[in-house]
Amino acid sequence: MQNSLAQGSSDFPGEADSSGERRQITVEATEKSQRLDRVLATRVDDLSRTRIKALIVAGHVAVADAVTRDPAYHVKPGDTITIDVPPAVPPEPEGEDIPLNIVYEDNDILVLDKQRGLVVHPAAGHESGTLVNALIAHCGDSLSGIGGVRRPGIVHRIDKDTTGLMVVAKNDRAHQSLTAQFADHGRTGALRRGYMAFVWGAPDRPRGTINQPIDRHPHAREKMAVRQGGREAITHWELLESFTGRDGKPVASLLACQLETGRTHQIRVHLSHVGHPLIGDDVYGSGFRTKASQLGSAAQNAPSALGRQALHAYLLVLEHPATGEIMTWESALPEDLLLLQKGLRSIK
Question: How far apart are CA 168 and CA 325, in angstroms?
Fold first, then answer.
């Protein structure tokens, strides 16, 4: 049984640096059609199956020199599997000097307007450069630790490429209060979360509610999906503006959405489910890219130029954990979404 270990680097995509390790195994005939993660868990003794899955998803595993991100990939006899194990990272996130757009801060909470591309907390493939790293540098020892060493202060998340308002707890009292408010999601309390969403197509009525359960996608585990038996998920929406294509019919819309629950990718999944996926959402709306051809010539490049899902958290209302005051923050559309809106309004 071949199980070689090599240091150093080559042209492997996602290669480890000089302090990491490269491992290679060759699939044997008895391992035909087995899952990639199972084979590696059996052959690599010092890595757990959970760790191996994380390495695969993060792009650190290649089969026959091609990066494979699917733990369930079925291997073939003779396949050479290469694993680049990144160097060990500190058990706790370290502070990093990352600029933050802070719109409010006191001894209990911090509210920021998150920029695009910023991951909220460390995870496989994003061990540094996250909001948590920035908060540790900014807040120091005052940051709440209830969320665990990997998520200090975090009581809710927005996706990496979604922009807008987030609140962070700076102490344990604030963390407990905010967590309770987000669990209630405004059903009995003051909490409100509002999003601006540019979507393909136009609803046939001015407002509505999507009440569909959400769970992991049955085949693509990195995605969520509407599934019976999933967790309750409720999204309210209102049509703010529609954009007309060359044929004179609405081809895109701007919706204001409010969450009554807080499921992973909730707005993206719900709007895609009803046939109006977010513009720029390659995960849940890739089948709608051809819609851009229906736009006027001046607007056709706007969706592709955006480079992210067109979603912005514009409204946050909550009860202050210490004073009980009802506080409201609003965030204007960022420049990239304003450019998208301008492009969608152009009809030539």
Answer: 17
